[in-house]
Amino acid sequence: MKWEDAIKMYIEYLKIERGLAQNTIDNYTFDVKKLIKYLYEFESTESPLTIESESLRQFIYSVSKSLNPRSQARLISGLRNFFDYLIFENYRTNNPVDLIESPRIGRKLPDTLSIDEIDALISAIDLSLPQGERNRAIIETLYSCGLRVSELTNLRLSDLFFEEDFIKVTGKGDKQRFVPISPLTKKYITIYIKDIRPHIPVIDAHRDILFLNRRGKQLTRAMIFTIIKQLVEKTGLNKNVSPHTFRHSFATHLLENGADLRAIQMMLGHESITTTEIYMHVDRSHLSEVLNKFHPRK
Fold first, then answer.
1. Last residue of a domain, which of 71, 99, 127?
2. Can you give the pLDDT at residue 295?
3. Same domain flag for 180 and 281
4. 3-state SS string over the chain?
5. Per-residue model confidence (pLDDT) at position 198
6. Do 130 and 252 belong to one domain?
7. Residues 209 and 92 in one domain
8. What's the pTM?
9. Which of 67, 80, 138, 256 could form a disulfide with 97 if both were Cys (CB 3.0 to 4.6 A apart)?
10. Given a cut of 90, is residue 100 above it in pLDDT?
11. Which SUPFAM superfamilies match (predicted)?
């Protein structure tokens, strides 16, 4: 089996069997493609079925010199997933990555914005500009609904169920969930829909997309990052803020105010409650408060 054939089948498996989005597939295959390039440069004759741990160890060493422990761990994980797939399809009986130890890494937690900081970012939006109303609705939706950036850009007019106070969100693997939406967020989205969107020359293919650029097309992930970056610079906020920061702040603020972890899991669209726990850095002080407040043996 050639490397090109193996990676092609792996991509088809991730797309069809696992139902993963293209961005996720790209992340899964990035390091495998890097390995293939490395082997070709050294004119290696090893195939996906014959390559052993020592060759992989040399590859990892050669590319990891400039990588931090977290990136090294991601590299090893990506390769392990690929060879696990070959085992799953009965092309191999062993995973050569299993003999390679991943570096120890601490838990990396994203920055969390305070409510005052979120208010400051929203206040910095210039509402005299047409895109100002749109950007305010975007930031409010990111924070009040805890959306991933791809979920935000793919949000459609037909996904808005304002009478029921919910929006329909399409998450990873095209899995759908309903997320509650606050009156304030509904208000800002409605202003954008009624006052701004009618003046945009909408492209037919994007007619149902909620948030559009000035040319009537769907906003890109990069544009959302740019909008946030400009607001952070304008307010002078000394934090690394991305769309993910608002999602993390959404979950953290809910937890701090006594929300149920299971409910937060459902709103975030996490399959595992373990992911939610890590995501929200449940600290001991908060857990002690919950115990003292709710346990019958106080």
1. 99
2. 63
3. yes
4. CCHHHHHHHHHHHHHHHCCCCHHHHHHHHHHHHHHHHHHHHCCCCCCCCCCCHHHHHHHHHHHHCCCCHHHHHHHHHHHHHHHHHHHHCCCCCCCHHHHCCCCCCCCCCCCCCCHHHHHHHHHCCCCCCHHHHHHHHHHHHHHHHCCCHHHHHCCEHHHEEHHHCEEEEECHHHCEEEEECCHHHHHHHHHHHHHHHHHCCCCHHHCCECCECCCCCECCHHHHHHHHHHHHHHHCCCCCCCHHHHHHHHHHHHHHCCCCHHHHHHHHCCCCHHHHHHHCCCCHHHHHHHHHHHCCCC
5. 93
6. yes
7. no
8. 0.64
9. 80
10. no
11. DNA breaking-rejoining enzymes (SSF56349)
